[in-house]
Design goal:
Layout (H helix, E strand, L loop, with lengths): L3 E7 L5 H12 L1 E4 L1 H12 L10 H19 L5 E7 L7 H17 L2 E8 L2 H8 L2 H5 L9 H5 L11 E5 L5 H16 L2
Parallel strand pairs: 1-3, 1-4, 2-3, 4-5
Helix pairs in contact: 1-8, 2-3, 3-4
Pfam families: AAA_33
Protein name: AAA family ATPase
InterPro entries: P-loop_NTPase
Amino acid sequence: MNNVVVYLVGPPGVGKYTVGKLIADRLSAKLLDNHFWCNPIFEVVEPDGTALPAGVWDRANDVMSAVLETVARFGPAGRNYVFTHAVSDPGGHALDWVIAGQILWVAERRGASLLVVRLACGEEQLRERIAREERRRRFKTTDAGMADSLASLGPFPINHDWILDLDTSGLSAAETADRIETELISRLHA
């Protein structure tokens, strides 16, 4: 498989990064997790759980835009990519729509086959996953009290021809990756 983009979108804790690493390995793809562009900025401001200074998200968005444009314009021909995108608001925040639009634009500009995978997870598993220490080290959401509201989010209402909705409750990361890979192969060979 060449020139494929897998776009994993869903609330924090559903397994986007973990599954993304597996998919990237299987497709010999470059994983560009949403923290790929946030963490350089977070490393500078050292978030401590309180509100971030005004303008910090603007800087992270500048990094994201530069990375995505670089992928679209200069990424090696035939290179596969896996993108992750954390959504925490019902229907998505205005910025979520900008991010989604940019990722779709990257795939279109590259002439890539794009599979949008909308991940969800039940409240109990989200609560457990969000509280894990490794998330804190990567500057990820660790407030397990958000599990109820995150679990109740509907799928991000993006419109695309190739969409796979997966509930990761009760699935291992490998099982989730298996389902994504099977769907991708099925669609590419249809």
